[in-house]
Amino acid sequence: MITRRRPGVKADRERSDPSPLMGYPTRQRRWIDHQSPALQRPNHLRKNFFNQLIPNLLAMFLLFMHEWGRSQSRRLLPIDERTGKPSSSPLDEPGAGVNGKPLPSPPTRRAPDHARPVPSQLPDSFHHMNQVVLITGANGTLGLAMARAWLEEPRQTGDPPNHRVWLGVRRGRDQAAALAEEHPGHARLIDLDVTSPDAWRAAVATIHATDQRLDVLVNNAGHHDDHLLAGMPAESWQSVIDSNLTGAFHGCQSVVRGMMGQRFGRIVNVASLSALLAPAGQTNYAAAKAGLIAMTRSLAKETARAGITVNAVCPGYIETPALDSMSAEGQRAAKSRIPMRRFGRPDEVAAAVRFLSGPTASYISGAELKIDGAIY
Ligand SMILES: NC(=O)c1ccc[n+]([C@@H]2O[C@H](COP(=O)([O-])OP(=O)(O)OC[C@H]3O[C@@H](n4cnc5c(N)ncnc54)[C@H](OP(=O)(O)O)[C@@H]3O)[C@@H](O)[C@H]2O)c1
């Protein structure tokens, strides 16, 4: 059946269709429907074109104005006869001025303090730097070896070493006293229970009053008291944390201001391989020494800008009375687990501490140095 449309009345589809092809006759619309989709959206395309055109024109205009401004400013400069090009402005010449008076030199901008690099502290000769050193727990095996590393340091120049080593002692003092007698004027005993903030204050005040500075602090005092955690007395936990960790905290706090004032300082914390291996039976000791390493890293960041380095050493099995509690069989088994197949010597630990305390270690901070024959 043929339906006729009355003139002036639009078909239903034409009336309801909001498409942009609205104005096209139906046959043409069908044709367009089969063409590229772009043809079907002329309004949309037109909008995109104008959206991009206006920013592009604006950018071209700004570029033109910029180039024009530059060419105008160069026209004001005299022409260089040799090159035929405008010479540079006379005001650019160093020392040029107006009416014979030199122009004030532009203010030189100093980098803000936090952005300036910390200078290297390497002196001309490492051996010319005499240090004032405090070693805690200096009557113990490792403490004595460390003190000797300063007091008996071989010198390239032939001059005797001129360090001052303060030997921190608590209960035992006989071996430290003997060492001080061997090195009169260079080694002195000082009473220091590291768990007491008052003792720290008094000791550091005495050192400053005598030597006017303190360059190196070695937090060496410490002890262990091994138990399985299930049966560990609370006092054992607390005393091990106190001597190994809290003592070092009091020490760092007591010396760090003075070191900041002198813009030089070295702190070496004696941790342990137990902090990394954490053997059974040492939850207190391993926790204390691991805390000491974390404290070392954090404090290193706080003091880096003041020329103070803070490092930790982690000795493994070292030939000290601490090993006496091990049976001969246990020692053999321990050695077989060490890739170097031997225990370390106290002077090998002392050499590492001495190196980290010297001016040549000026770019090492926040480190933990294992001294363990490659066991870990
Ligand atoms: N020996 C090793 O194989 C080994 C391995 C890894 C780490 N370490 C660590 O190295 C350091 C020294 O070890 P070491 O073998 O030389 O031990 P050590 O011979 O037993 O000497 C420890 C020293 O620390 C002192 N001390 C302990 N608690 C103190 C406190 N509260 N205040 C002041 N002084 C205190 C002791 O003094 P008193 O005479 O008053 O008790 C002693 O002089 C320790 O921190 C230890 O944990 C040792």
Chart the SSEs and their pairings.
Elements: H1 12-16, H2 26-33, H3 42-75, E1 97-98, E2 101-102, E3 132-135, H4 141-151, E4 164-169, H5 174-182, E5 187-191, H6 197-211, E6 216-219, H7 234-262, E7 265-270, H8 274-277, H9 283-303, E8 308-315, H10 328-337, H11 346-357, E9 368-371
Parallel strand pairs: 3-4, 3-6, 4-5, 6-7, 7-8, 8-9
Antiparallel strand pairs: 1-2
Descriptive tags:
binds NADP nicotinamide-adenine-dinucleotide phosphate; 42% helix; 376 residues; Rossmann fold; alpha/beta; 11 helices; extended
Summarize the structure.
It is built from 11 helices and 9 strands. The protein has helices at 12-16, 26-33, 42-75, 141-151, 174-182, 197-211, 234-262, 274-277, 283-303, 328-337, 346-357, and strands at 97-98, 101-102, 132-135, 164-169, 187-191, 216-219, 265-270, 308-315, 368-371. β4 (164-169), α5 and β5 (187-191) form a beta-alpha-beta unit.
CATH-defined fold name of the domain at 131-371: Rossmann fold
* Rg (CA only): 40 Å
* Beta-strand proportion: 5-15%
* Distance linking N and C termini: 97 Å
Biggest sheet, spatial arrangement of strands: 5-4-3-6-7-8-9
Q: Name the helicity range.
A: 40-55%
**Helix segment tally:** 11
Description of the structure:
There is one protein chain. By secondary structure, the protein is an alpha/beta fold. It has a domain at 131-371: NAD(P)-binding Rossmann-like Domain (Rossmann fold, 3-Layer(aba) Sandwich). It is built from 11 helices and 9 strands. It has helices at 12-16, 26-33, 42-75, 141-151, 174-182, 197-211, 234-262, 274-277, 283-303, 328-337, 346-357; strands spanning 97-98, 101-102, 132-135, 164-169, 187-191, 216-219, 265-270, 308-315, 368-371. The strands form 2 sheets. A 7-stranded parallel β-sheet has the order 5-4-3-6-7-8-9, sandwiched between helices. It has a two-stranded antiparallel ribbon with strand order 1-2. Strand 3 (132-135), helix 4 (141-151) and strand 4 (164-169) form a beta-alpha-beta unit. The longest helix has 34 residues, at 42-75. The chain is extended. The N and C termini lie far apart (97 Å). Mean pLDDT is 84; it is low at 8-18 and 89-96. The structure holds NADP nicotinamide-adenine-dinucleotide phosphate.
